[in-house]
Amino acid sequence: MELRHLRHFVALAEEEHFGRAAERVFVVQQALSNSIKNLEDEVGVPLVLRTTRRVQLTPAGREFLAAARATLEQADQVIERARRAARGEVGRLTLGFVSGLAFGGLPEVVRTFRELYPNVSVALQELTAQEQEAGLRAGQLDIGLMLLPVRDPAFASEALWRQELVGALPSSHPLTSRERLTVADFAQEAFVFFPRHIRATYYDQVMRWCASAGFAPRIVQEAIEVPTLLSLVAAGLGVFLPIRFFERLSLPGVTYRRVEGAPIVDIVAVWRRQDDPPVVRAFLQVARSVLAAERVGEG
Asked: Which residues form the HTH lysR-type domain (predicted)?
């Protein structure tokens, strides 16, 4: 039994006339008549009573009409769902992100995406860059958000927005009396920072920046989370060089200052190059739009 047979039957039942029903479904009258006859042969009972003036349904035809309408409606829903999936409007998105992005950009992106695509289930996982790479390879993540691109040909990546590094100092620190600093101003300071194995690329970038000014940071305390590091700054243990959007995390006792010549850090989306589902493309489109105002020099 084909869907076209059901559509022909519903049209005939509603029009009660072979000629009008044929016009409605864009076939010649003989083709419609043959379609109904084939349907009746398959069902095994008469569905319509043919007279010279009109067509009437048999009792079996009336029962069949209700089922045919329900079947066609369900088929239309299945087709529409497939089309929406192809547009990235339904499904599931599993998103990994590095610690800290929850304070800069990610909430706005996820909120906007969920507003635009309410039928997509979004699962968030806070993971290190290394854990995200493993999750992407295993198919456990659809997309990852991390600092700086992954240099692996199996992955595609795109810088969604860029942020400069800033200085985070104890509010009582003498350097807070100046609006702008240089990296050399930190040469004699104690630092709090990530362990290198947690943020190797970020760590090395900061080390190179400081080395360009002739010193190596004296790290007195390590922590793996940005809020913890900023709490250590507030406690006066040392200074920190976070990404600019962490200024949003207004912690009592911490003052942020711009630093001349600060490196720019790319926050990138990473996904499997050979697996580019519509839901990933939809998320990237939303992220590009929302994060445009987060780029350096704006916002």
From this structure: 1-58
